[in-house]
Model the fold of this input.
Amino acid sequence: MHLDPGVRITPIRQEQLKSRLGDRFHELDVPLLVEWPDGRRDALLFVLEEETNSARFSIHRLAQYCLELSDMFKTNRVVPVAIFLRPAHKVPEMLVLGGDTLTYLSFNYLKCDLANLDANQYLNSSNLVARLNLPNMHWPADRKVDIYAHATRGLFTLEPDPEKQRKYLDFIDIYSALDDNQMHEYQARYPQENSKMAGLAERLLNEGMQKGRQEGKQDILLRLLTRRFGPLDATTEHRLQSASAADLERWTDNILDARTLDEVFASH
Done:
């Protein structure tokens, strides 16, 4: 099905569903609500379930999950998709419930077996998910370093957010599992991608250090205010947590002369 640019896709956060579904196996599921703002079609709910080990897959569980979501969002337009990171040859692809003469429930789903997809067809894909999953696709053993490079290149080209780059790079590393020799080969053959990885690591390290200094200033000011004026209320604590570095420095200076808590936060 073709989705035009006007379609709105909203991930339904799993944390919002856990209290009702109460199933630890739904941790990696990602329900996506697809909406056509112009009203040409009713909303469509995609239910994506990821299974690393196909032996753990349960078509009954997936069917139950789809029924739960259908009831929760009051829609029968539900598309279940099972994504397998490892070969899935013997998983059931249809569930039929009924008696001798009648069928009361017929359930099937879209099956995506990543291990059977040819990685060569996705090496330069503009789809970020496809590029991240190159290590999970089918490729010759001697192309491992190249597959890793195309995955990381896609990550840095298609995802601008450094925090997401760091998270997705962990995903690529886990499923590529380069040994030391392969990593050295990658660094030698793909210096541009390696340089971007090093730059990302340095940037995140600096941001982490800066965040650490900011939290340190907040902690010090919190302790000083508590010692001077007694326990702080929730509003004041929130004000400290959301303050800029300049605000924290100004308030710390104000403590020396302030006679009340309000005077600490005075702008003058």
Q: What stands out?
A: The two ends are 61 Å apart (CA to CA). Residues 254 and 264 are 5 Å apart (CA to CA). The mean pLDDT is 80. Residues 1-116 form one domain.
